[in-house]
Design a protein that fits this description.
Layout: H1 3-24, H2 27-31, E1 38-42, E2 58-62, E3 67-77, E4 82-92, E5 98-117, E6 146-160, E7 166-174, E8 187-192, E9 198-204, E10 207-211
Antiparallel strand pairs: 1-3, 1-10, 2-3, 2-9, 3-4, 4-5, 5-6, 6-7, 6-10, 7-8, 8-9
Length: 238
C-alpha cells in the first residue's frame, strides 16, 4: 500500500472517529473545555436523519456543470483562529460520472462571521433533525449547546485516491440567525488555488455550527424566528 493510500485510510478512520465522538462524548464536558467554540457539520451527522435526501451530502457546481459532493465534521475556535476538520469528497462530471474521490482536511481558518444563534433551528419549518437519542429533544439538556449560523472561510487540502493533492478555499455557509442579504443560501463554495477553478453554485445540502463555548447562555433571549438571533461571541476577521 502506498504512503498516500495509507494516509487516506488514516484520515477516513479519523473522520469516522470524530463523527462518532461528537455524539458519544458528553457535550457538557465539551462545553466546559476551551478546546473549541463550535462543532461544524457539513452534510453529515444528525443533519442526515431529517428524512430529506437532499440534506447529505452538500453539493456545489461550477459554471461548466461539474460538481463536488462533500461531507465532513470538525471543530473551530474563534479566539485562536483555528480549525480541525476533515471529510470526504466526490468530484463528478456534468453528466454525473465520478471523476475522483478522496478526503479533504482543513488547514487554516481564514475567517468566521457569526450570524448568531437559532435555538429552534432543529425543529423549525416542520423539520426535525436527529434520532430521539441524539436529536433536538436532548440537545437543550446537554449544557445548552446551540445551533448557530455563520460563514466560515477555510483553506482545505483535497487528497484524491489517485492524482496529486489540491488546495482550495472553501466557504461554509449556514443560513441561520441574522443571515446577511449577500449570503442567503446554505451550502459550500470552492475556489481552487493555482488554476482558479471556481464552484459557486450551491445546489443542495445542509451545514450547521453548534455553539459550545463556556459562559454562553444563548437561551436567555431566544429569537422569535429564523431571522432573529442573539449576537454571537467574538468573530474571527481576516
Amino acid at each position: 500500500m502506498s504512503s498516500q493510500r495509507e494516509l487516506l485510510t488514516w484520515v477516513i478512520a479519523w473522520t469516522a472517529g470524530v463523527g462518532l465522538a461528537l455524539f458519544i462524548v458528553p457535550i457538557p464536558a465539551m462545553a466546559q473545555s476551551n478546546s473549541a467554540d463550535y462543532i461544524l457539520l457539513i452534510g453529515s451527522g444528525f443533519l442526515c436523519d431529517s428524512g430529506d435526501s437532499s440534506a447529505c451530502p452538500v453539493v456545489v457546481k461550477s459554471a461548466q456543470g461539474d460538481s463536488f459532493e462533500m461531507s465532513g465534521v470538525g471543530t473551530l475556535s474563534t479566539p485562536r483562529k483555528s480549525i480541525t476538520a476533515t471529510g470526504t469528497f466526490t468530484h463528478k462530471s456534468p453528466n454525473g460520472n465520478t471523476i475522483e474521490t478522496g478526503v479533504w482536511v482543513a488547514s487554516e481558518l481564514v475567517s468566521f462571521d457569526s450570524y448568531g444563534i437559532a435555538p429552534g433551528a432543529l425543529t423549525q419549518e416542520g423539520r426535525v433533525f436527529g434520532s430521539p437519542q441524539f436529536g433536538p429533544r436532548r440537545m437543550p439538556m446537554l449544557a445548552r449547546p446551540m445551533p448557530a449560523g455563520g460563514l466560515a472561510v477555510v483553506r482545505v487540502r483535497l487528497l484524491p485516491m489517485s492524482g496529486p493533492p489540491k488546495t482550495a478555499t472553501a466557504q461554509v455557509n449556514c443560513a441561520l440567525g441574522k443571515v446577511p442579504d449577500e449570503h442567503p443560501t446554505e451550502g459550500i463554495r470552492l475556489v481552487f488555488e493555482g488554476v482558479g477553478e471556481e464552484f459557486d453554485q450551491e445546489i443542495s445540502g445542509r451545514t450547521i455550527f453548534i455553539l459550545t463555548r463556556p459562559g454562553a447562555d444563548p437561551a436567555a433571549k431566544p429569537p422569535a424566528n429564523r431571522g432573529e438571533a442573539n449576537p454571537a461571541p467574538a468573530e474571527v476577521q481576516q
